[in-house]
């Protein structure tokens, strides 16, 4: 029988390589897995519990977007799980205006969490793959209080990041910066099992993912770049296909496994970009770089961007290093 490695066994094995560790980060990774299981269960029941979890909640979130019922549920699940972990001091979410401080009656820890609780939620009612993204930073302020500077850290300061994707199966992928490991949820035993150890993205560009309907709004270098990937006779792009789901986690996950590039560039409607630096771009860039890929705004590596606001938006091009570097060169050439 093949050795079956649960996510908790994997986390504890990795912790033994760091005898100085106190176990807090291991606890947070396990908490992320538990929250993902709870959200997965609700996502998989969504069609049977329509009045409870499908459709709009009637609320517009801080991003100005219609909040789905599952958005709110996922946000509550993650916040509650980390609040009670004993390792977290504060929490910030795409679904909330400001940051949340762990209540005084609970134990506050040394870390802060930023999350997109349910990425791609506009696709929920159509049963399209969606996901959860989590970023983990070490608190930088001193004392028991939490401040804005604890959250406004560049991606280079991340200590761990992960995402879950809820599709034909539920997968959880995470990194602490050195390697990327993927786990698949076995619903029979309710455990995440190691299925994709030490993930390294293929160098071949199998997919490019972009909403080409927006091409009329792009700048000239972006239009040239997409045309090059789509139409070039370069053998590198032989067999490259357009694949765009519209759920960032799902598009990113596919391109991580198959090799490819995802683009959500600036355009005339969104000159600062559309995706959120803290909740989407930073954690996925951290995972991409650990898997041999890269991520850029076009002018700066995502992980080097100094954030100025919790809900800051940025352009994002992420995927195979060669494709990302080519995009940066084309932008520089103008």
Describe the structure.
- By secondary structure, this protein is an alpha+beta fold.
- The chain folds into two domains: 7-196, Fructose-1,6-Bisphosphatase, Chain A, domain 1; 207-333, 3-Layer(aba) Sandwich (D-Maltodextrin-Binding Protein, domain 2).
- 31% of the residues lie in helices and 25% in strands.
- The protein has nine helices and 17 strands.
- The protein has helices at 7-15, 24-44, 50-53, 69-83, 148-151, 220-231, 248-258, 277-290, 321-333, and strands at residues 56-60, 66-68, 88-93, 100-101, 111-119, 130-138, 158-166, 170-175, 180-186, 191-196, 207-209, 241-242, 260-264, 275-276, 293-296, 313-314, 316-320.
- The strands form four sheets. An eight-stranded mixed β-sheet has the order 4-3-5-6-7-8-9-10, with helices on both faces. A five-stranded mixed β-sheet has the order 12-11-13-17-15, with helices on both faces. Strands 1-2 form a two-stranded antiparallel ribbon.
- A hairpin with a 6-residue loop joins strand 3 and strand 4.
- The longest helix has 21 residues, at 24-44.
- The radius of gyration is 19 Å and the shape is globular.
Helical coverage, percent range: 25-40%
CATH architecture of the largest domain: 2-Layer Sandwich
* The number of domains: 2
Q: On the 0-100 scale, what is the average pLDDT?
A: 92
CATH topology of the largest domain: Fructose-1,6-Bisphosphatase, Chain A, domain 1
Give the overall shape, derived from the CA principal axes: globular
Count of helical stretches: 9
Query: What is the strand tally?
Result: 17
The amount of beta strand, in percent, is 25-35%
Coarse structural class:
alpha+beta
**Roughly how many Å apart are the termini?**
57 Å
Query: Mind telling me the C-alpha Rg?
Result: 19 Å
- Which residues form runs of ≥5 with pLDDT under 50? none
Question: What does the main sheet amount to?
Answer: 8 strands, mixed
CATH class of the largest domain: Alpha Beta
Superfamily at the CATH H level of the largest domain? Fructose-1,6-Bisphosphatase, subunit A, domain 1
Task: Give the neighbour order of strands across the main sheet.
Answer: 4-3-5-6-7-8-9-10
Write the element-wise H/E pattern from the N-terminal end onward: HHHEEHEEEEHEEEEEHEHEEHEEEH
